[in-house]
Specification:
Distance between the termini: 30 Å
Strand order of the largest sheet: 1-2
Helix content: 25-40%
Shape: elongated
C-alpha cells in the first residue's frame, strides 16, 4: 500500500501524454517501435520526506533524553488549537512547566495569547504554511 495516499500500489504509473495510438508519420534517425500505448511503472527509491523524518527522529531523541513530553497539535485554521492550549496552560501550568513552539505564516497573535495564558512561547514565522518542519524545531 502507498504510504502517502493508501492507493494500494507500490510505484507510479506513467502514461505518455498526447499519444492515443495515432499514426506517427515522422522520420527518426533510428528505428524503434511506435507502440505509444504502453505504460511504464517506476519505483521511488527514496521517501520524499526522508530528511524531515530523520531530523524529527533526532528531535524526539533529544527531547526524550531530557525527559520532555512533546505534543504536536495540528488541525485546520480556526479549529480551536490555541483555545485548547490556553485552557490547558491555565489548568495545568501551575503543576507542569509548559512551553510552546508556535508556527504561523506571519503573525504573533497566537504566541501572544499563549504567553498571556502563562506559558513560555517561541514564535516561528514560516512565511508560507503554518506547519513546522522538523529542522525548524
Amino acid at each position: 500500500m502507498c504510504a502517502t495516499c493508501g492507493c494500494g500500489t507500490d510505484g507510479a504509473v506513467i502514461t505518455p501524454a498526447g499519444h492515443d495510438g495515432h499514426p506517427h508519420p515522422h522520420d527518426h534517425p533510428h528505428d524503434h517501435p511506435h507502440d505509444h500505448l504502453r505504460t511504464e511503472t517506476i519505483t521511488l527509491e527514496q521517501k520524499v520526506l526522508a530528511k524531515n523524518d530523520r531530523v524529527a527522529e533526532e528531535n524526539r531523541g533529544r527531547l526524550a533524553t531530557r525527559g520532555i513530553l512533546a505534543l504536536n497539535m495540528t488541525s485546520s485554521p480556526g479549529a480551536g488549537k490555541t483555545t485548547l492550549l490556553e485552557r490547558t496552560i491555565r489548568d495545568l501550568g501551575g503543576q507542569w512547566p509548559i512551553a510552546v513552539i508556535e508556527g504561523d505564516q506571519e503573525t504573533l497573535l497566537d504566541a501572544n495569547r499563549i504567553r498571556a495564558a502563562g506559558a513560555r512561547a517561541v514564535q516561528i514565522n514560516t512565511g508560507a504554511g503554518c506547519h513546522l518542519d522538523a529542522d525548524m524545531v
